[in-house]
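PROTEIN–LIGAND DATA SHEET

This sheet pairs a single protein chain with one bound small molecule, S-adenosylmethionine, given as SMILES. Inputs appear in the order they were entered. The predicted three-dimensional arrangement of chain and ligand is reported afterwards as a token string under its own label.
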Amino acid sequence: MPEDNLPTPSATAATPHVRRKRYSGKNPRRFEEKYKEHGSDAATLAKVIASGKTPAGTHRPIMVPEILAVLAPQPGEIAADCTLGYGGHTQELLARLAPGGRLVGLDTDPIELPKTVERLQALGFGEDVFTAHRTNYAGLPQVLTGLGIEGADMILADLGISSMQIDDPTRGFSVKLDGPLDMRMNPQRGVPASVLLQKTKTDDLARMLELNADEPNAVKLSLTLAEQHYATTRQLAEAIRATLPYLGKEDADLTVRRVFQALRIAVNDEFSALDMFLRNLPFCLKPGGRVAILTFHSGEDRRVKKAFDAGYYDGTYSDIAKSVGRPTPEEQHSNPRSAPAKLRWAVRAKA
Ligand SMILES: C[S@@+](CC[C@H](N)C(=O)[O-])C[C@H]1O[C@@H](n2cnc3c(N)ncnc32)[C@H](O)[C@@H]1O
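PREDICTION REPORTED AS:
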């Protein structure tokens, strides 16, 4: 998306030249300065990607070949992408569902969803093949029923947050960029992380840090952080580091990441949504339908594994992943954000 004060390519001929914004140093540092990455300059995008980064305002889909192998999309089939994000996986699926197939996309984020819909429509995926629904994926059965779909041939969920959400400091997810301590995927619902933390008592915070992020210093951190008000991401990160001053930089950085992860999961009630989604899944799949789930930390993966194992033993699923799939070393190297990803899949029994 072009930056506000820059001309769009079609407007360039009609309007006088506008000087591009200057930034200090060799590379843009601030999110809003990364205007070059927002445009369609393929060479710039390729350069950013080759350096192992994700261009601002985009998301690089993870384990695409592995997911396509598991979901095996065929022309005429129906797919549900429960975590549409930038639409990277959706775009690949849609290309393989034609002719005659369709994809139902869900995402809870009211800020990024319209941009993704616009992007996919510009690629030629009209409402006949692609519809987007701003809703929690826990409500997948209601969305499918509303569309008159009895069951999908394939379902994808790529959990967590997108690069667009992480990289936008105003969303409050980033451990690196300063911004309001918010962390809501849907800022129209719930309370920001700053309010949640201020309301959370010591014992509850210690439990939250342990359950949501396996944080080894949960008790110590909760004694400092519970019921405190931190308005910004930087203030919270500094308070975490100050609580454990003896940690080296790497361990301190990891601790900050774990506390942010734990808070984000709590703010968005992520485990409740995932548990409900896993319970509903078999009823949303046609017999023989395939599901693939990408998780990014142990709390998520444990839930998916348990649900698939239970479904396999009681005959709901005829087959499940025997071991967890991981991104290739090449993918982890070229896209470090893929490194923690774990892929599990299951096939709905036919009988
Ligand atoms: C990792 S991104 C998905 C990226 C996507 N696969 C792509 O290729 O662009 C996860 C997305 O899921 C959305 N999300 C997370 N939890 C959700 C939930 N419970 N219901 C609906 N959407 C959710 C987030 O807003 C985010 O856009």
